[in-house]
Amino acid sequence: MTRRQVFFYISIIFTILLGSSCAAPPSEQATVSTPTLPAITPYNTSTPTTSSYNAEDNIQATSLPQPSATPFLYQIQKDDTLSVIAYRHSLTLDDLLAANPGIDPNFLSIGTKIIIPMGDGNHAIPPTPTPFSAEVNQPRCYPTSDGGLWCIALVNNGESHALENITASITLLSASGDLLAQGTALPPINKVGAESSIVVAAFFPEPVPPYQSVHIQLLTALPIIDETRYLETKTQLEENILDSNSAIVRGTVEISTGESSVQHLIVAAIAYDQDGNPIGIRKWSTTMEITDQTRFPFEISVFSLGPPIFEVEIISEARP
């Protein structure tokens, strides 16, 4: 190395040492060195591929949890009973009473709200189609002038106690047994006495499909637990004017009210043909409170849907 080169390197070193020992002026910002990132070595991984579904693979899907049912309030409607409400919501009567300990089943007021219990699985009990045996006769159906169809059947209570909430399902079937139409058949009154019969009827509005056969199934027939929910009635016929297609029946209904007032009164006329088949129903009802009398006159006109009228039966029901 020559002298000139040695002198050059000594000058550089001296300049560096001198610059590092001097403080920077206040107005100048010290320079911060940027660190150098280390070199990144790439790591090779396998790229995932999409495979087609094989039905033989044992793959099971997990279903999403469903929201659990919760209790809700139901408002009492006209003609409601606790038995009917329990059946509509797939409950037993005991479940409904347990959820509403303060409710009196004998005095249900329209507008009262009750709890419908749900959710824990103990109350979701499927209703028994026929809790008590009752014989159901094959329905007879009669077309109407406006294109509809009335289907009427007799339900016979062979039990030694009265029943209530009689309902039946009437279905119209094709020649191959396919369901074409379905309706709920209801009686004109809610109570049927021991070892007696009640008529149920369902109406199918037009257009009625061409059917081959009619099927009926009893849905509900519940025992009357407390007879005090019904007042005793006695019907007195005074005039019965029969025609081949119509009848006018007049008379009175006597009610044993005791200390109760009459809140609900129904009088119904059932027309029969000469073979004892029901062929017409007409009813009159009132929900006005009646406190000043126990005898009520009535006049009902009933019409035949088919054969000539042979006789007319009058039935009545009163509730406190």
What gross morphology would you assign? globular
Beta-strand content:
35-45%
Listing every helix as H and every strand as E from the N terminus to the C terminus, the arrangement reads: HEHHEEEEEEEEEEEEEEE
Count every beta strand, where a strand is a DSSP E run of 2 or more residues.
16
Low-confidence runs: 18-69, 119-130
**Rg from Cα:** 43 Å
Q: Helix segment count?
A: 3
Sheet with the most strands, sense and barrel status: 4 strands, antiparallel
Structural class, by secondary structure, is mainly beta
Helix content: 10-25%
**Average pLDDT score:** 76
CA(first)-CA(last) distance: 131 Å
Describe the 3D structure.
With 320 residues, the protein is mainly beta. Helix content is 10%, strand content 38%. It contains three helices and 16 strands. The protein has helices spanning 3-20, 82-88, 93-99, and strands at residues 72-75, 113-116, 135-136, 140-143, 149-157, 163-173, 179-185, 191-192, 196-204, 213-223, 232-242, 246-256, 264-272, 278-286, 295-303, 311-319. The strands form five sheets. Strands 3, 4, 5 and 9 form a four-stranded antiparallel β-sheet that branches. Strand 4 and strand 5 (149-157) form a beta hairpin. Helix 2 crosses helix 3. The longest helix is centred in the first third of the chain and has 18 residues, at 3-20. It is globular, with a radius of gyration of 43 Å. It starts with a helix and ends with a strand. The relative contact order is 0.12. The model is unreliable at 18-69 and 119-130 (pLDDT under 50).
